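Anyone up for a design puzzle?
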């Protein structure tokens, strides 16, 4: 089914997963509003790639951790598009603003994670719903393992914020269900795009030895598909949820991780393989 002529807003749409989503939707004819925080050049590059795929859109700077800027962003969407069919909440604050262990994290770092995720989604979803006719689509890019596990210690603030985001998906699915608006979450696994700052995703921020070890871990079998994901994989999942045929899927967290979330960590792979 063509999505031609519909309109989407993607927060954090200039790089990594957000860029992958923007380009996949553009391939289906969706006009895309690309939100960015600091990197205007990356946002303009993504917009140029959107246009190369035969679609159009615009870029909009906003810090989604600030309620006034969320309001300004949606006012611009209303002025440019007039309406909105798809809203994808993807923006995440930079690692240095929240990345700290639970016994050392500051209240400011904690608040930044929460404000950029749960609070941003709460406020932005209410704004998006006002611009949507019935049967719109709202999608949060979350990370469910962060709310279920505790081993990645410096991720405590973002993991807790993502857990709150998962919960909000369910609450809004109930609230907006009578209008036919679906609300779902997409939980990526390890994502490793091309080796550059624009497309590479969060793993490309980490040291090369961490990237290599993570890739070997997943290719060795801890992801059944034997690879890390790409931004395009997440873009494909979001595009599927935007289709008319997905209209009865709501309140769900879809794991797009090559099967990593179904692995049993108790036994070594050699034993699990039999």
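Challenge accepted. My sequence:
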């Amino acid at each position: 089914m063509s999505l031609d002529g519909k309109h989407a807003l993607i927060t954090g749409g200039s790089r990594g997963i957000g860029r992958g989503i923007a380009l996949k939707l553009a391939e289906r004819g969706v006009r895309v509003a690309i939100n960015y925080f600091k990197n205007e050049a990356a946002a303009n590059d993504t917009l140029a790639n959107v246009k190369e795929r035969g679609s159009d859109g615009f870029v909009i700077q906003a810090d989604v951790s600030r309620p006034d800027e969320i309001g300004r962003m949606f006012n611009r969407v209303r002025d440019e598009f007039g309406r909105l069919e798809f809203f994808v909440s993807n923006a995440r604050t930079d690692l240095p603003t929240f990345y700290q262990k639970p016994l050392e994290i500051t209240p400011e770092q904690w608040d930044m994670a929460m404000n950029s995720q749960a609070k941003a989604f709460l406020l932005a979803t209410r704004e998006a719903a006002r611009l949507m006719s019935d049967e719109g689509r709202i999608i949060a890019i979350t990370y469910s393992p962060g709310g279920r596990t505790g081993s990645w210690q410096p991720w405590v603030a973002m993991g807790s914020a993502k857990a709150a985001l998962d919960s909000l998906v369910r609450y809004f699915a109930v609230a907006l269900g009578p209008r036919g608006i679906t609300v779902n979450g997409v939980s990526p696994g390890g994502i490793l795009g091309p080796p550059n700052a624009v497309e590479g995703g969060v793993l490309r921020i980490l040291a090369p030895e961490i990237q290599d070890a993570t890739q070997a871990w997943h290719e060795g079998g801890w992801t059944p598909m034997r690879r890390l994901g790409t931004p395009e994989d997440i873009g494909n999942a979001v595009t599927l949820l935007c289709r008319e045929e997905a209209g009865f899927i709501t309140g769900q967290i879809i794991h797009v991780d090559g099967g990593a979330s179904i692995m049993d960590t108790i036994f070594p792979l050699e034993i699990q393989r039999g």
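A detail worth pointing out: Residues 7-207+230-265 form a domain with the Rossmann fold fold (CATH 3.40.50.720).
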